[in-house]
Design a protein that fits this description.
The structure is a single chain. By secondary structure, the chain is mostly helical. Among the domains are: 3-126, no CATH class; 188-244, no CATH class; 545-628, no CATH class. Helix content is 16%, strand content 3%. It has helices spanning 3-20, 42-45, 57-60, 62-70, 74-78, 84-88, 132-135, 143-147, 158-161, 221-224, 299-302, 353-356, 372-375, 429-432, 448-451, 521-524, 583-586, 600-603, 625-628; strands spanning 227-228, 234-235, 454-455, 460-461, 527-528, 535-536, 607-610, 613-616. The strands form 4 sheets. Strands 1-2 form a two-stranded antiparallel ribbon. It has a two-stranded antiparallel sheet with strand order 3-4. It starts with a helix and ends with a helix. The relative contact order is 0.03.
């Protein structure tokens, strides 16, 4: 039965009970309302004669009516309407006439899934795991809420039952004991959170009278905030006076020499070293101002005792520092350290390349960037500051392994290199012309490393060659050269490797005449690619015409002894036409008389098909006169 159905039934029965005084209730009331469980009390809760079910819940439950009017709490969020309509909305969650054991609170959802945010108080942290009765009971109700309620009567029985969901305060102190006894006020969340009560992330000492700085920030709270009296007293957080002086917590290590005012020299970031500044002890007012590296030194480095009035020798650096150079600079400034070093740092030394120019070896170029220890071998007392600088080889390794030891160079690096940079070397084309290999043509544009490559024998770059022949650097693409063993320049030039010079082909036994003179070399000397490498051979090239030219006569002039006929009997290199054929010499048919003027095609007119080409037939041409003359 729905709440609305129950309400209607209650109203109807109530009206009937008043009029007839004999109608029975639809069911007994709950334990809380059992004092109203008579037919004459129906009008206490129901509005008689209203036509539709109306209830008087808010006339008794004034605390709910007050919270609805103030629009706060859970009921203000879920109750619909106002006035009498709001009272009628109570039946959605509270149903009566279901017996003494009936729970008036009918949860629309299980309490385990109740969204506590609807009450205006979100359960977070450890509060979320608490049971409802842990907080919702009469012992947690505020005195103000209890005082605002009427004496126990109808609608007020939950005070005696020990159950209530009203009258709770959001202040921590309403449930938790104040461990600080009111010293820090009721707002516990300023320091604590709901996850862990001992986690004081919410508290910052910056807002207190004693902000924690430096090492004070790492001190545990109990180190300063102790119980007073020690055994039974409470922890003191308010009206704390021990921070007015350092001596309240710290011992005076100087025995009162500085009137106990620690802050003049020390800071909270660390008791050592002392802060020697304008706000602390000003060492510049003494005969020895502290500058540079001297400034962060601990006092005990110089002041061996706590008596700071004892005089300390300080006129010369050697009063405190030992001479690590063992007198090597005794001739300069009497060996005083300040000639090269300063108080900002002992390294690097203040001896600049400009200062080095006053020595026997001025630092120029790349030498300016070299660390002192690169040339001055040794460390500390063993460092050598007067090395031999007469030769580059004293510092630099001979990377050419004696290739330039001859009288002209004598292993002097400065002949080719400069101190501004070891690469590129200062060896020009003019210098190279003085060697056995003058760089001309395309050679002038070749990078040095293309020819001067590392040689395994010397483990360095090769600069000296037993021979300057082309084949020292270039691989021949011609295979065995045979009679061409002379040199590449007999055919090629240094301007371009593909450019050939005036090669005398007649020296090969095969002079080039006629149109052969215009033929490219690779027309006869065919390139081969054995194993993927292009190779052009010259030795053993065939000289017969058929080696290069196709037989357009389809084998008519081949014999058993001559498979590659001599085309030169008919043709010349000047003209491929058969102008050189001597009919008297090579044929038994003499062309004398008028036959001399007859074109060849007039007699040799027969043709046959050889593949896709028409071939003129020469052999077997008829010789009878009547074949041509009719």
């Amino acid at each position: 039965m729905s709440s609305r159905t129950v309400g209607v039934a209650v109203a109807v029965i109530a009206v009937a009970a008043v009029s007839s005084n004999a109608q029975m209730s639809p069911g007994p009331l709950s334990q809380a309302h059992k004092g109203l469980d008579t037919p004459l009390q129906c009008a206490t809760c129901h509005v008689v004669g209203a036509g539709s079910p109306q209830f008087r819940c808010l006339e008794c439950h004034e605390e709910i009516r007050r919270r609805l009017s103030e629009k706060r709490g859970y009921h203000a969020r879920i109750v619909k309407g106002a006035g009498m309509q709001a009272a009628g909305d109570c039946a959605r969650c509270h149903a009566e006439h279901n017996g003494r054991q009936n729970q008036l609170v009918r949860w629309r959802t299980p309490r385990s899934r109740f969204d506590h945010r609807q009450t205006g108080w979100t359960l977070e942290g450890k509060h979320a795991a608490l049971s409802c009765q842990k907080c919702h009971n009469t012992t947690k109700m505020t005195p103000e809420h209890i005082a605002s309620m009427k004496p126990p009567g109808p609608g007020k029985f939950y005070l005696t039952s020990g159950k209530s969901y009203l009258g709770l305060s959001p202040l921590c102190g309403s449930c938790h004991d104040d461990k600080h006894h009111g010293d820090l006020g009721p707002a516990c969340t300023r320091c604590h959170n709901q996850e862990n009560w001992k986690d004081l992330r919410g508290f910052t000492h910056e807002k207190s009278e004693f902000p924690l700085t430096g090492l004070h920030g790492k001190v545990a709270c109990a180190q300063c905030h102790k119980r007073f009296p020690p055994e039974t007293g409470r922890v003191q957080y308010k009206n704390f006076v021990i921070f007015e002086s350092c001596r309240a917590c710290h011992n005076d290590a100087h025995g009162g020499s500085f009137a106990g005012d620690c802050q003049k020299c020390h800071t909270t970031s660390g008791w050592k070293p002392a802060r020697l500044s304008e706000s602390g002890f000003d060492h510049s007012r003494t005969e020895f101002p502290l500058n540079g590296k001297h400034r962060p030194l601990e006092c005990a480095k110089c002041h061996r005792t706590a008596k700071f009035s004892v005089e300390i020798p300080h006129a010369r650096c050697l009063d405190c520092h030992r001479d690590t150079h063992q007198g090597q600079f005794a001739a300069r400034n009497g060996g005083e350290c300040a000639g090269c070093h300063n108080e900002s740092g002992w390294k690097p030394a203040g001896f600049t390349p400009k200062d080095h120019s006053s020595t026997r070896y001025p630092l120029l170029g790349m030498h300016e960037q070299v660390a002192c220890a690169k040339c001055h071998a040794g460390t500390g007392a063993t460092a050598d500051y007067h090395p031999d600088a007469s030769s580059c080889r004293n510092c630099h390794k001979d990377r050419h392994y004696g290739q330039f030891a001859m009288p002209r160079h004598e292993n002097r690096c400065e002949n080719c290199h400069e101190v501004s940079g070891w690469k590129p070397a200062r060896f020009t084309l003019v210098e190279h012309a003085k060697t056995r290999m003058t760089l001309a043509g395309a050679h002038a544009a070749v990078a040095c490393a293309e020819c001067h490559r590392p040689a395994p024998a010397t483990e360095g770059t090769r600069f000296r060659f037993e021979s300057v022949r082309c084949l020292e650097c270039h691989q021949t693409p011609h295979g065995p050269l045979g009679t061409l063993q002379a040199e590449c320049e007999s055919c090629h030039t240094v301007r371009n490797w593909k450019e050939t010079g005036p090669f005398d082909h007649g020296s090969t036994g095969y002079p080039l005449t006629g149109k052969h003179r215009a033929a490219v070399c690779t027309g006869c000397h065919k390139p081969e690619i054995p194993g993927g490498k292009r190779l052009i051979t010259f030795q053993g090239t065939a000289r017969a015409c058929g080696a290069c030219h196709a037989d357009v006569h389809d084998g008519q002039f081949q014999t058993a002894l001559e498979t590659n006929p001599d085309c030169g009997r008919c043709h010349t290199t000047t003209n491929w036409q058969p102008t050189g054929f001597d009919h008297q010499k090579h044929s038994t048919f003499s062309l004398r008389g008028a036959h001399e003027r007859v074109p060849c095609r007039m007699c040799h007119e027969n043709r046959r098909l050889a593949g896709l080409r028409q071939v003129v037939i020469y052999r077997g041409t008829p010789r009878l006169c009547e074949v041509c003359h009719r």
